[in-house]
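Our platform keeps sequence and structure together, in a single record for each protein. Because each token names a local backbone shape, the row as a whole describes the fold. One such record is reproduced below, unchanged from the form in which we store it:
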Amino acid sequence: MTTEGVGALDALIERTLSGDASARLELLERHRDDLRRMVRARLNRRLASRIDPSDVVQDALADASQRLDEYLRDRPLPFLGWLRQLTADRVVDAHRRHVIAQARSVRREAPEPISWDDSASALGHSLVANDTSPSARMAVQERLERVMGVLQAMAEKDREILVMRHIEQLPAAQIAEALGCTVGAAEARIYRALVRLRAGLEGLEL
């Protein structure tokens, strides 16, 4: 995060701690759009049409509002990192509700397992050229399977930072804010993750 960004966040936190209601609201609202992009990137494609990212974010921010005083006392995570964690929990809950509801509607005894986080798949598809001609579909699928294999084998922290940068399209400053590090450190982590990804995909024509 830039020095200016750190200063603005610290000022909001201090005003919130002093009981300033407008600062509290601004603090909770400052990342709504970022969280909406995060949810959209992670929604399972089979459920995305039934889950509104805005509703998920609203639930997460309501949860954050209830827990904010406790968070500000301890600050166990960077503020944006804390919001992202709460939002990820709400995405899990939303998927669970829809999968169970679907299972009941077709009278299954148990819901079909569906991964809540589709961001690795979104990243994989973004790396593979989408040629939909019949002759190319098999080759595209083979490339996609290779890419997904590499992504799944990567360390979670590397995969996550690539999703943040290339799917959520967060600038390095906001990634730094979420991770609680400097912008330079965030850029270095993005670069290292890209190097590892390219090494795994060596020889594959995308």
